[in-house]
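A student in our group prepared the protein record below, which I am reviewing. This is what I was given:
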Amino acid sequence: MGNKPIRVLIVDDSSYMRFVLGKILGEDPDIEVAGAARDGLHALELLDEIKPDVVTLDLEMPRLDGFDALKRIMRDRPTPVVIVTSFTEQGRDPAIRALELGAVDFVRKPDKRESLTMSTIRDELVAKVKMAAAANPETAFQDRAAQVNEAPVPAPPAAPEIEMKKLVVVACSTGGPRALAALLPAIPADAPLGIIVVQHMPAGFTSSLAARLDMLSQVRVSEAADNDALRAGHAFVAPGGSHLRIRAGGRLYLSSDPPVNNVRPSADVTMKDAAALYGSMAAGVVLTGMGADGAAGAAAIRAAGGAAIAQQRDDCVVDGMPAALIASGNADRIAPLARMAREILDLV
């Protein structure tokens, strides 16, 4: 990381958690704990004073909770934020909402039955703080939080089934939930597009992501399941922990094959199926994210006669994935997120 450590502000209403998180982060030579805040208001007071590189933020706090603090951080002093909070089986929606509001990533606190030393999250927490420090707050955070429409989109009236003229596979990772919350609502319900979304996310969280996107979008959005049929006006989200594959005839199936590019689901896996089965009818779209997933898959789609679109690098939270596609020379189009829906619709 060079000579300059990553300066972190820890925000949690539990003094014990502030101590434990500080100990974990402080033990890494590349990280300096610059301060600790007991709630959202305290965090805002410290933000301008200590100017951290990264904020770790709990969601449930008195006076000013994590959501409102996150909105104000993104509005007033955009800074990479990693959510560190507790999730239950029913409580994953808050994580998705926080990602839409501008958080870079999240880490689940161990529950009371797990180690009180939090050694179970040590490596994950340190890795995500370091990743967040490389994120782009000015272009990626400040402008996007306001783009998320809070109001559910009314269900469109029943209409005759539309022929699917293009299959679009969207790859995203870090920054993806917020990018998707801007992109998918801009796709009309009657667009002749079948859509697959491959977002790198743990198992269990993709169902909440799909439900949230379905509420915001004109197209239907659901987590993919075995034997789902691709169709126009519907976006299928690959479940966390499984590759999403395509059979002849447009039927989807889940695969537990080993991770590709260190991730499962991998966009490369799904895009290569799309290339083989749909050829020029396929399109690969690579959005914000760390790593290179999607680059080889989009290249396969382009080689089969389809289109490959990359998000503009300086428009990304983390530009690794689209940068890999651009560097390969296989991006037909490069566009900012605000123009991405138009670029996709132009393909049909």
Notes: Residues 274 and 282 are 6 Å apart (CA to CA). The chain is about 35% helix and 20% strand. The chain has two domains: 6-146, 166-346. The longest strand covers residues 31-37.
